[in-house]
Specification:
It is a single chain. The protein folds into 2 domains: 130 residues; 151 residues, Rieske [2Fe-2S] iron-sulphur domain (Rieske Iron-sulfur Protein). It is α+β, with helices and mostly antiparallel strands. The mean pLDDT is 88. Helix content is 34%, strand content 13%. Strand 8 and strand 9 form a beta hairpin. It is built from 8 helices and 12 strands. The strands form 4 sheets. A 4-stranded antiparallel sheet has the order 3-4-5-6. The chain has a 4-stranded antiparallel sheet with strand order 7-8-9-10, with no helix packed on it. The relative contact order is 0.09.
Length: 346
Amino acid sequence: MNEQKTPPVADPGLEEHEHRFTDVDEAAADRAYRQIVGMLAAVPVLVLAFLFVYFGVPKDAELVLFGANFQMQTTLLGLTGGLATLLIGVAAIAWARSLMSDEEIVGDRHGAPSPPEARERVLADLETGIEASGIRRRKLLGTGMAGALGLIAVPAIVTLADLGPWPTPDLRAETLEKTIWAEGIRLVNDVNYLPLKASELLVGQLVNAVPANLEELHGAEHQSAKAKAAIIIVRMDPNSIKIPDSRKDWQVDGILCYSKICTHVGCPISLWEQQTHHLLCPCHQSTFDLGNSGVVVFGPAARSLPQLPITTDAEGYLVARSDFTVPVGPSYFERDSSKDYKEGDR
């Protein structure tokens, strides 16, 4: 015979229900109702204030509080947007704690499959929950909450504009796909900005260089320009390298110039293997053959290293013939890759 086991803890049953203040005092319930609606009504006002600050307050305006300087726009955006979000949360909690049904319910356990009568009971319970929420009697609660939740998304959508302008082809051509290289710009050492004379470079040598006009820029503009215009210059025996017909005038007696930025994820490259003419990226080991127009010979990079056309000026110093003919750095979906050099191109 199976012996019936006694539960280790006695069933305490359903405790006696304690009524809330708003359950027994209709005036208190009405006050809570007005407070909740007031909080939800403040959300549209705060959203409008957020939009006014975003579009109307200059980004460089400062706000002095307690002797400290703050950026006025970001401070006010945080206050208005944060307070609007906080009011929605407080209103939802107050609604649940003060006006929604506070009745305790005991639910018996049952098997996993739900019989039809159970589904009907769930729908009935859902109807009971809707009735208990007070939405039908106090309709402004549901309307206010729905409106507040809808409007609070507006600040988030508006601030998406700070991600930057839409990358149209014209905009990319003037920004992302353009560097400060131009015809006649001298190639200078990236440490002391001294110009580089072709006759002074040795076979096998690699030099990290930048455009001479980079020295005229300062701050963020300087760093942004350098990130795209940084180059490496290598000199190789002309008899040991492949130079396609379309690039015969891009080099000077075996001196070639390439972007220093890897075409995989944009790491700076300068690991030079003199014997193989290979340039290795230290981040993910993409390897480019500088003796063959910078084609990829190993690693995850998907396109050749961009080459800068160069020549010499009247004094024998290396100068650029033009800007890069293809965008430097990592690839991206919108760019045209038809001009990238590929093995076998003439």
